[in-house]
Records
---
Amino acid sequence: MLNFLKREYAKIAVVVIMAAIIGLIVRFTQPGLEIDYPEQDTVLTMEDFTIKTDQGEITVGVSSWDQVTAQLPGGETLGLSTIYRPPEKDCLLQFTEDENILNKMHIFADRFVTSRGVKVTDPFSAVEVSYGPNYTQIKSKDKPDYFEAVYGSGNNNSIVFQVQDNKIVKIILQHDIYLQ
């Protein structure tokens, strides 16, 4: 019985060691990130989290599920009931679970324009003209033509512009909910 337990413990030890080795290999073979922080954050207002649609405006952090789906009807919920995708599939909208308030919007196409006039497909220079030079730049060492420019402060109240080949390919607006 004692030999059996020793073999079982040895098997467990081998599995744990192999998992640790694989984890270290993965960790040290991944390209690093370079993060450049601005001297000061860009101040964003609630207006900066407002997007114009054909039927009106949507404000991340304020608009409810009913308001958004009335302006972008015919979409579908994905996975959890807190994610909504309009039929054009040009954005994803995430809502809070309890309050059902829009708290994150991913924009993939030029149909939606930020309150400062920037849209997907614009050159990055349009972002800098509209939002200024104070952004956090995140880039991967192995993809020099791709980076993210993050405007705002904190992880929950920001606008992220994903840029590839000097063109905006995605805009993410994320804002804590604002209960009136």
Note: The chain is about 25% helix and 35% strand.
---
Amino acid sequence: MNDTDRNIIEQVRAGNTRRYALLVDRHKDRALTLAFRLTGVKEEAEELVQDAFLRAFKSLDQFRGEAKFGTWFYRILYNLCMTKVTRRRGRPEQLDVQDEKALDSLLVDEDEVTIQERLEDEELQHIIAEEISNLPEKFRAVITLFYVQEMSYGEIASVLSTPMGTIKTNLFRARNLLRERVLARTKGEIKVA
């Protein structure tokens, strides 16, 4: 059965709470990616995702359906992550390089890639991941939500409780800052879109 999130939520509200596991399965990977990118610590990210799913479950009656479940849920998760990072008062640890395919859109597309180019691409992915983790939080969040979570400007504005114009400006500035930092590290040897 191919249920929508909205249908599953209605079934859970009607008493079939086991159906909530379907929502968890649908959103857990992206949620973990978001939490990890925002906190930089895998164990913290896992705990925060579990906490966010639990809070969402307990608050499911408050979900009005004006936004997608994912957008509503990611807002909960984002708030938990920012609370954790703020309490820590330190910079997140360097992020591991994993699942960087979502960041490929930051690179120049090439039809055929030689072994040397592939190595450069892997090196560039590592540099990009490191530089994203070093961006200011407002830029790191918007880059992660746009490229990794593949959210629209409107969804990002909802998750971050920020006007859409600010989201567009922050994304533009984040891309430029990221490009500058990557080019500085690579001394312009690797092409960045």
Note: DSSP finds eight helices and no strands in the chain.
---
Amino acid sequence: LDRRGSFLWVSQDGDAWVIRDRALVQRARREVEPMQLLGAEMGRLGAEMGRLGAEMGRLGAQQGRYGAEMGRLGGRQGVLAARVALLSLGADDDDPAIEREVAAIEREMAAIERELEAASDRHEGLEGRRMEDLGERMGELGDRMGELGDQMERLAPRVKRELQTLVKEAIATRRAE
């Protein structure tokens, strides 16, 4: 069918035919319409899956930033722990300056630990749940897409037979040029 549905172009046994008969064109349109509707719905679902995939990508980027933040904080903790170990080596246990420095480092490490916990809570709370929700929705859409594909597969042979019959009729009745 052309875009306006005013004629049907077919190829049969190596010959090209144009069918302009309104009744036959309408019949062809009615036969093809269920497949077009299924195709449109599949396209809509595909677009929704694309949108969800993009959102999952954004969340993945956030997770990457979260990982970088965790790595930065963990690295800082490692540097501070090494600093405490170096201060403890060969130092006099009663040196007040070293004790103050170690106490300051331990406070900083505790603050980093709180930051790590807060970042983990934020990440696992909102982003983790959202990613799960998106994954579930993507799965539902995939299931629906599969159902539509099955419908299309069942419908296609019947539509093909009907169109072949229509073309043979048009050729036999000289309504095909």
Note: The helical segments are 22-88, 96-172.
